[in-house]
Every structure is written in C-alpha cells, then in structure tokens.
Amino acid sequence: MKLTRNVYTPAPDGEHNAVVADVVDRGVVTSPFGQKNKIELVYLLDGRDPITNQPFRVSEFLTQSIHEKAKLFQRACTLLGREPVLANWDPDELIGCQCRIQTAQQTNARGTTFANVVGVTGPTKGKRVSVPLGYQRKTYNRPKTNGGALANAHGAGDALPGNPAQ
Length: 166
Prior knowledge:
Elements: E1 14-31, E2 34-48, E3 55-63, H1 71-80, E4 98-107, E5 113-121
Antiparallel strand pairs: 1-2, 1-4, 2-3, 4-5
C-alpha cells in the first residue's frame, strides 16, 4: 500500500467573499490553556484552488462558549447580523451565512503553509458564494446532524446531501 499526501494549496492572503459551509463539533481539545470544547467553522471562499479546481477552504477553531466576550459569540453576531438567541442556541445556524474574511498565510514548525482567518466582516452587497452541490460535511465528532437546509436569510448555497432545501 502506498500512502500519498493530499494536494493542498493554502488560500491566498487578503480579503475574500466566503460562506460558512460547515460547523464541526471537535469535542474536547487540549490547548495551552487546558482542555476546551472546540468547534470548527469551515469557510468556502470565492477563489478556486488551481490544482483541484475546488473552492479554497479555510477553517477556524473556536472555543464552544457563547459568553459575550467569547470569539464564537462575536463571530455569530457578525455572521448573523444580530446576537444569537442564547436559549439552546445551535451553532449550525451559522451554516450558509455569507461574509468577507481576511486571511493570512503562516508556516508551522514542520514547514506546512496554511491560511489563518484573521478577521470576519459582514458580506459584500451583491456578492454571494455558494456551497457546491455534492459538498460533504465533516463527520468528525458530530453528535447530531443538521436536519435543516442551507437556505436561510443569509443567502445560502446549494443544499447538502441529506439536507434538502426547505
């Protein structure tokens, strides 16, 4: 058996129109500040990877906290255009939200270059990024499935397999 590396081109530095394509429960992750429950926000950008011809994908890992000073709360306010309703709030509500993100490339200790999300703002009027038909949501540690569709007031893309548009 031969093992191969995935071909990966990091998103270029700069501002990009994007859509939140997935929210993944990463479970308990050990961080420099101890063990934290984390989620991953997966953004698809308007630009395409020249090697795979797929939209660039950038992820952001956030602590599962909806405290008003938490980054997840701030992202939710920006993406939704309002404060989330805190009683039993489901982060999957962010799927389909249009936005602009600022990315910056970084190289880790192993020499792998990747793109970091350094800022998120509201969407550019008249610009829309769609989730490609056939996009597969990650299943890592997902305790539930998204029974809704991507179609929401934020201009979502195509419905995902198993998540028909309503």
